[in-house]
């Protein structure tokens, strides 16, 4: 239904074209749902600090039936990101 992180003012769930999905994303039991740019994905708005590839961020995901669950999510290292990372 929604998400948040201390690292950004807002987290939006958007479709593949960047349009907000106000109703959230449908999740099937025991099935992987990938959030990525060519599909539905999360967009961080007004990021409060630099996020480098490999960094971990706390995300609070809000589910319709399961309530809120906190995850530590590792950011991906984009092909264009030459910044140093603590994971190396």
Runs in which pLDDT lies below 50 for 5 or more consecutive residues are none
Strand order of the largest sheet: 1-4-5
Cα-based radius of gyration, to the nearest Å: 14 Å
| SSE string, helices as H and strands as E | EEEEE
- β-strand percent reads 35-45%
DSSP E strands, number:
5
Structural class by sheet pairing and helices:
mainly beta
Largest sheet: 3 strands, antiparallel
Q: Shape, please?
A: globular
Distance linking N and C termini: 35 Å
User: Could you tell me the mean pLDDT?
Assistant: 82
Q: Helical segment tally?
A: 0
Percent in helix = under 10%
Short description:
It is built from no helices and 5 strands.
Description:
The protein is mostly beta strands and 88 residues long. Helix content is 0%, strand content 38%. The protein has no helices and 5 strands. The strands form 2 sheets. It has a 3-stranded antiparallel β-sheet, with no helix packed on it.
């Amino acid at each position: 239904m929604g998400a948040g992180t201390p690292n950004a003012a807002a987290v939006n769930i958007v479709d593949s074209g960047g349009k907000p999905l106000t109703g959230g994303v449908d999740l099937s039991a025991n099935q992987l749902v990938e959030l990525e740019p060519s599909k539905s994905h999360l967009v961080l708005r007004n990021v409060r600090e630099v996020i480098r590839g490999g960094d971990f961020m706390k995300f609070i995901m809000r589910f319709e039936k399961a309530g809120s669950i906190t995850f530590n999510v590792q950011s991906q290292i984009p092909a264009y990101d030459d910044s140093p990372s603590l994971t190396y």
